[in-house]
Amino acid sequence: MKKGKIMADPKEIFGPIVHIYRTHLEYMAKELEVYRIGSGQYDFLMVLYHKDGISQENLARMLKVSKATSTRAIQNLEKEGYVYREKDENDLRAYKVYLTDKGKEMRGVIFEKLVSFIDVLFSDFTPEEKEIFRLLAHKAALKFFEPGFEPPSEKPD
């Protein structure tokens, strides 16, 4: 067996991850519907909470979505008054995205909803299991946080 290969059925690993992810999206969409923030749009706000004034292209790259998806999400958030765009002084073809006061005020609401979801997710975990899960999730995802990550183009054995 090659290094890094596991003998588990991929469904055993990805099935639960996908189920948690999809449930999370559904939960957040329902919770943020009253604020007119659509599914996945809050992810853009989350990035802006860490780096306000980022380019649309970098937002798309960081969230691993297409430029078209990024543009639609930002346009919707802009229409609802959560963000605004300004031309990039260094590249007049590009826009930088900034939070409005309304967008900044949503930070607490979004974090509250995320914590509520995590509380449900971890409701049957011991404190030790929560910490192990957190550490393993970070370890598993670390390589995918790098900008420009591309899946390997390895030929099958």
Question: What secondary-structure arrangement, pairings included, does this model have?
Answer:
Elements: H1 10-32, H2 41-50, E1 54-55, H3 56-63, H4 67-79, E2 83-88, E3 91-99, H5 101-121, H6 127-141
CATH architecture: Orthogonal Bundle
Whole-number radius of gyration? Answer: 18 Å
- Helical percentage: 55-70%
The count of DSSP E runs of length 2 or more, i.e. the number of strands, is 3
Low-pLDDT runs: none
**Spatial gap, N to C terminus:** 11 Å
What is the level 1 CATH name? Answer: Mainly Alpha
Helix and strand composition category: mainly alpha
User: What can be said about the biggest beta sheet?
Assistant: 3 strands, antiparallel
Oligomeric state of this protein: single chain
Q: Strand-and-helix sequence, N→C? A: HHEHHEEHH
In which order are the strands of the major sheet placed?
A: 1-3-2
Shape: globular
Describe the protein.
The structure is a single chain. The protein is mainly α and about 160 residues long. It contains six helices and three strands. The chain has helices spanning about 10-30, 40-50, 55-65, 65-80, 100-120, 125-140; strands spanning about 55, 85-90, 90-100. It has a three-stranded antiparallel sheet with strand order 1-3-2. α2 packs across α5 (about 100-120). The model has no long low-confidence stretch (mean pLDDT about 85). It comes from Methanosarcina acetivorans (strain ATCC 35395 / DSM 2834 / JCM 12185 / C2A). This is Transcriptional regulator, MarR family.
